Amino acid sequence: MLEHSDEGYGDDDDAENTNSRCSTEATDEDIIEELDTKDTGDAQLDNTHVPWIRLDREVYFYAGHKINIVEAMDSHGGVIWPAALALCNYLETNTDVIDLKGKQVLELGSGTGLVSIVASLLGAQVTATDLPDVLSNLRYNLLRNTRGRSKYTPEVTALSWGSEVERTYPRSVYRYDYVLAADVVYHHDLEELLVTMKYFCRPGNTLIWANKVRLKTNLVFTEDFKNTFNTTLLAEMGEVKIFKATCKR
Ligand SMILES: C[S@@+](CC[C@H](N)C(=O)[O-])C[C@H]1O[C@@H](n2cnc3c(N)ncnc32)[C@H](O)[C@@H]1O
């Protein structure tokens, strides 16, 4: 599924240029306007809207499309993690179990955006979320790979885990059929993540959580997760487990 592209994004000159050219935040319209003037297939990527030092470009094939992902240094969300690949694989090969066509989908901790891109290519109306610092690269990858291919234009927005979500995403306005999360459990405070999962997992919708098991804390979280929701283990792909959860009434 992965084709490695060696375009030398990591050298110092590129890094300096990237940082200086990204002093102002681009809007969706700016990015779309730029993409309008470019070939969205194999064209050389432009790093105008990527504020970090680039590491590399990765090429994947999912849902019948070639997907170019720009990775970046300096945050956990800048690179693709194993659970994202496993979840993309699961989603594209199990549309009979999880049919995303026309569904409202929220992704937590989207990182580079691969999972949201695949969900969008599979027909979902996607909202990809992450911490503010990660959004520029996420937005770039999402628009770059779904424009002209997806029925619904995906949204990219900030969402920090914790009780604040009740204020920023009021229940009266936001409702999702599926909540997706890949490799969101690693070395950080997991209480806020569980609070957020609980907030978005409501009667009638489904949470899909994929994670590579790394640390003892992962196992503790998995136990808390199982105690909090009705859970089913959908798949095990190597060290990655994919769970389906619904809320306990
Ligand atoms: C290990 S990365 C996984 C990225 C992506 N899902 C993947 O699998 O490739 C974890 C992601 O969670 C995000 N994250 C970490 N803490 C967060 C928080 N408190 N609120 C929102 N997102 C957070 C990070 O920015 C990062 O994008």
TrEMBL record:
Keyword entries, A-Z: Methyltransferase, S-adenosyl-L-methionine, Transferase
UniProt cross-references to CDD domains, sorted A to Z: AdoMet_MTases (cd02440)
Domain of life of the organism encoding this protein: Eukaryota
Region Disordered, annotated ranges: 1-28
UniProt cross-references to Pfam families, sorted A to Z: Methyltransf_16 (PF10294)
Protein's GO biological process: methylation
Example of a GO MF term: methyltransferase activity
InterPro entries, A to Z: Methyltransf_16 (IPR019410)
Identification of the protein by name: Uncharacterized protein
Organism listed in the record: Oncorhynchus tshawytscha (Chinook salmon)
